[in-house]
Amino acid sequence: MISAKYRKDMAYNLYAAEVFQDGAEKLLHEQRATAKTYLNRRTGNLIAHLDSSPFHVMMTQFNARLILEYFTSVRFTDLRKTASGKTKKVYGPIYNKLLWGFAYGHIYPQLRYGFTRQMREKYTEKLRQIYNQPL
């Protein structure tokens, strides 16, 4: 779970939710490409799981969250050795390398430096339009 908490500004939370949505789609695209290239496709469960877009972006008034749901086995496909210490024949950096690269290379810089004055005005106007619409 990746979360952005900025309690004073709902425009920032709306921006963070869009950054999370865009970033998660890019991450899953890269993971699908890695799974199709490097990993043995015996059952096809991993690729089917990644194709189902296993993420949720939730936004409340106080924060925005990105929740990525993976099979437990995906975490261990990144390891170069098996539990008994043997080196794997097929190794594909699908979880740690891509996930941390996505978090620190894509999400963090956009959340930290991407919310400029123009972005604040854009999202504030979006919120005004949402709240001024009659029900």
Termini separation:
33 Å
| Structural category | mainly alpha
Number of domains: 1
Number of strands: 3
Number of helices: 5
Residue fraction in strands: 5-15%
Percent of residues in helices: 55-70%
Encode the helix/strand succession as letters: EHHEEHHH
What value does the Rg take, in angstroms?
Answer: 18 Å
Shape: elongated
The residue ranges in which pLDDT falls below 50 over 5 or more consecutive positions are none
Overall residue-averaged pLDDT value: 79
Q: Reading side by side through the largest sheet, how are the strands ordered? A: 1-3-2
The main sheet comes to:
3 strands, antiparallel
Secondary structure elements and pairings:
Elements: E1 2-5, H1 10-37, H2 45-51, E2 55-59, E3 63-68, H3 72-77, H4 96-113, H5 117-132
Antiparallel strand pairs: 1-3, 2-3
